[in-house]
Amino acid sequence: MRTLALIYGVIAYAVFFLTFLYAIGFVGDLAVPRTINSGESGPIGLTVLINTVLLGVFAVQHSLMARPAFKAWWARFVPPPVERSTYVLASSLALVLLFWQWRPMPEVVWSVPAGAATVAVWALFGLGWMIVLTSTFLINHFDLFGLRQVWAYRRQRTIPPADFRTPLFYKVVRHPIYLGFIIAFFAAPTMSQGRLFFAVVTTAYVLIAIQLEERDLIGVFGDRYRDYRRKVGMLLPIPPLRPGPALAPGAIDDRPAGP
After folding, report:
1. If residue 35 lies in a helix (H) or strand (E), which one and from where to where?
2. CA 213, CA 218: separation in Å to the nearest integer?
3. What is d(CA 130, CA 122) in angstroms, rounded to the nearest whole number?
4. What is d(CA 181, CA 224) in angstroms, rounded to the nearest whole number?
5. What is the pLDDT of residues 20-29, one digit of tens each?
6. Sequence ranges of the domains in the chain
7. 80-101 vs 147-154: helix axis angle to the nearest 10?
8. From CA 147, how far away is CA 82, in angstroms rounded?
9. Residue 209 φ/ψ region, left for φ over 0, alpha for ψ in the -120 to 50 degree band, beta for the rest
10. pTM
11. CA 254, CA 122: separation in Å to the nearest integer?
12. pLDDT tens sequence across 150-181
């Protein structure tokens, strides 16, 4: 049973990592069979509807399965050691569905002149993905994607409670993973309507998801996270403009939950 859990966790991680690599090509319109701009375009109304549903499926899955109430219910069916791996696998499959069924909107919104400007935008695109991947390692990549849990289960070890740390990027923004995604999504030398739609909708989702995740973070870390939130910007490397007063102990407030 323990070995099977480890194998399952490794498979879920492999699916995630391949999906992550494919996402770079999908968004950047690079070297993968289906990209954000490939395929036949259809009626704009139907295209927007289908793409909205695809993004909504991912958003609901990604946020709903990360909530403590859902985890408490889910624990009746999924053993705790593989809960995170199952979440990661479900998120990856939701993205695979999006890649498969996405409808292109190829009309150009803007195009950067060839030369140094194009190189700069591509560098920004790469920087965004680098921030995403680096940030996962800063907060324990293998825990975030379920490998640490199944490995500890296989070795019959208990994982200690999470410790609150703010390494590197986390000293200047609270959510560098989300910031990296936003940078990568908007950094397009040629921005199509489809990619702009994707970037805008995912950014809106990020702003909503952060509120839910920070509520969970405060539930875990309490006043330490409240104080962190007052001092460090959410997505921009500047302190909040109006730091609010400290909440009373026990007040509801908010941890990033997902890949």
Report:
1. none
2. 9
3. 12
4. 26
5. 999 999 999 9
6. 2-231
7. 150
8. 9
9. alpha
10. 0.89
11. 35
12. 999 999 999 888 889 999 999 999 999 999 99
